[in-house]
Amino acid sequence: MPTNPRSSSRVFWSRLGAGSAVLLWALSSIAETFQNYDQVVASALPQKVLWHVIARDGRSKNYTDLIPLDGGTVGIAHFAKGGLGALYGNMDTDKYFSKSRETMRNHFAADCRPEGKKGNDTGWGCYSQSWWKQGMRNFLNSDDSKEVQHRAWAQMMKPVINKALSHSWKSKRELATALSIANSLGARGFSRLANQHGWDAEKTLAAYAQRSAHAQRRKDALDEQFPQMPTR
Fold first, then answer.
1. Contacts 24+ apart (CB under 8 A), 35-43
2. pTM value?
């Protein structure tokens, strides 16, 4: 007797159970791949990595962070020094600092940590300047802050994403690995580590996790959000 395809499908899913069905859906989502930077950004993958993996759902970093490290470190990605330039480039600096984007990028980004200085700002950086700190606090608590931070970080990570794609790291997990490591070691540090392990994403991630307890926690968060696809 011929079977009804729709009936068979309903029986399959009912036997499978809700939990397993959700798992299959999640695995199919994880299996999605990307061909270029624009696709990655449009998928919102960078901000998912930023919040769930790097910031660990706010336990490690948050959108309103404003600390004296490196002369002034701010936001979910802990933008500092060079990273501040990308942030200024995406925000209304006249509104928050009464200065142009060009002025902020040229004089209050890399210059926030003068040559020879390190650690917390004790009077030598941007954080110790009240107008800068208040303007940054106002921005971080504004309605458009999250979107600006997402956009700035995605732009900063463009070379990392393109480098990973060029080595056939095209899945969500592989790109999440690239972003997570680059945020910690920098773009060059990520490329160096990946090159040492033949651009094998899993070997690179495992090597990174061995560096410190912090790195292991980041890998754990990545594994939770982007589980490794089962192998046959």
1. 35/165, 35/170, 36/165, 37/158, 37/161, 37/162, 37/165, 40/161, 40/165, 40/175, 41/154, 43/172
2. 0.83
